[in-house]
Design goal:
By secondary structure, the protein is of the alpha/beta class. It has helices spanning 2-21, 33-40, 67-73, 116-119, 139-146, 162-171, 185-194, 207-215, 234-242, 254-261, 267-274, 284-297; strands at 50-53, 79-87, 93-95, 151-156, 178-181, 199-203, 223-226, 247-250, 278-281.
Length: 306
């Protein structure tokens, strides 16, 4: 009897230990583009600050631009996933930031010198240079995975065609969870002409840049404003918010470094309090803790987020 009790309790403890180790995923789900538009239309009563995981939120054991890394990021917070697209030699759209494979994979040389079948032989490496078992994903696989889980910000590298990427977005019916990143008004205009229903991340670091976008026929309700990598004056936030525009602040770089060095300052908390709506960060663990605290204190919730 004593043996059976000991066995029972050991099994129970093992079970409870496993349950404690299970990670909870925080997903974002939009069934229609109209739900996405409503979520991103800024108003004092309709605001849900988010983290954008820069290059998907890499950390030890999880390489940048990797589906397994994207999934891991959702265990910290509901996530916007920022990722980069490149071409293989045979024009397959693959997920990779650098021109060369060396830093982030076991491959060597230019990514464009390999067919996708050849790229499948390589494993990805994390930021510390450690090889993982994870592979270079395709755009198809990322879009298929993303539906009902995350909001995507899609960055195109090395002359990748907006038209081809938008064709994939439509093929996988992920217009309701996709934002296309552009770096100037002409690129934004191209995307809007190709797909008027898609949301666009456009650089708006001064009022004249928004006017230029509007003059090209891009309405405010299709714009998410990237305001730079240093916090702008509150006047710019107020100007954009008064037009119903959600903002993205890039914290990757100096802001992230400052927050890591000074965790007690709650830098991310104060950034969203000052007007940033989405923080594009490499430091998602610390940012997640502070955004959780901000949303709890402000009693912020959303039907689109579990």
């Amino acid at each position: 009897m004593k043996f059976h009790l000991l066995f029972f309790f050991s099994v129970l403890l093992a079970f409870l230990s496993c349950k404690q180790e299970e990670k909870v995923h925080h997903y974002i789900k939009f069934d229609t583009t109209n739900q996405l538009y409503r979520f991103l239309k800024w108003s004092p009563d309709n605001r849900y600050p988010l983290i954008s995981a820069h290059r998907g939120g890499p950390m030890p054991g999880y390489p940048e631009n990797c589906i397994e890394t994207f999934e891991n990021a959702t265990t910290y917070n509901p996530m916007v996933i920022e990722f980069d697209i490149a071409y293989s030699k045979d024009s397959v759209l693959v997920i990779m930031h650098d021109d060369k494979l060396d830093r982030t994979s076991t491959g060597k040389g230019l990514i464009g010198d390999y067919t996708y079948d050849e790229l499948k032989a390589f494993n990805l490496k994390d930021d510390e240079g450690n090889e993982t078992k994870f592979k270079i994903p395709t755009l198809d696989s990322v879009l298929s995975w993303s539906k009902g889980k995350v909001l995507l910000t899609i960055d195109l590298k090395r002359g990748v065609s907006y038209a081809k990427v938008i064709e994939k977005v439509k093929q996988y019916k992920v217009e309701s969870n996709s934002i296309i990143i552009t770096y100037n008004a002409n690129q934004a205009h191209e995307v809007h002409k190709l797909a008027p229903d898609l949301m666009i991340s456009a650089s708006v670091q001064k009022k004249s840049e928004l006017k230029r976008l509007n003059d090209l026929g891009i309405p405010n309700n299709r714009i998410v404003a990237f305001v730079g990598v240093s916090a702008p004056e509150k006047e710019l936030y107020n100007y954009l918010h008064n037009k119903g525009i959600t903002t993205i602040l890039g914290t990757m770089g100096n802001i992230d470094k400052s927050s890591i060095a000074n965790p007690a300052k709650n830098i991310y908390y104060h950034l969203v309090s000052n007007g940033a709506d989405i923080l594009s960060s490499d430091n998602i663990v610390q940012a997640a803790e502070q955004l959780d605290k901000f949303r709890y204190n402000k009693k912020i919730s959303s039907a689109n987020i579990n």
